Structure to design on (104 residues):
């Protein structure tokens, strides 16, 4: 995420559109979003939605944290390494395919 203003604005729009949120909670939510981009992200992404379609997975707990990071496309730090790659599993034997999918 590179535009904190857009993130905060989207979170404020989401909070204002929530017809079930009590006014007292809405004020707290708006202040939290204004003060912390990770709070803004938390109002836009529902952790349950991230795991709902994964068979056998039930969300027990979720929390958010974030920190600003400068993106430098030339830095080796931003290169995907083997740990960042998702592997396709062969459905028959559960073994890794030869090549990673490249998704992170």
């Amino acid at each position: 995420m590179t535009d904190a203003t857009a993130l905060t604005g989207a979170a404020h729009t989401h909070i204002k559109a929530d017809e079930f949120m009590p006014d007292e909670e809405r004020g707290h939510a708006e202040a939290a979003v204004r003060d912390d981009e990770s709070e803004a992200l938390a109002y836009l992404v529902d952790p349950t939605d991230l795991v709902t379609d994964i068979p056998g997975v039930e969300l027990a707990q979720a929390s958010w944290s974030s920190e600003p990071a400068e993106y430098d496309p030339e830095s080796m730090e931003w290169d995907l390494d083997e740990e960042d790659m998702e592997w396709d599993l062969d459905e028959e034997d559960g073994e890794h395919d030869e090549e990673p999918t490249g998704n992170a």
Summary: The beta strands are 87-89, 96-100. The chain has one domain: 4-100. The helical segments are 4-17, 23-35, 37-44, 47-51.
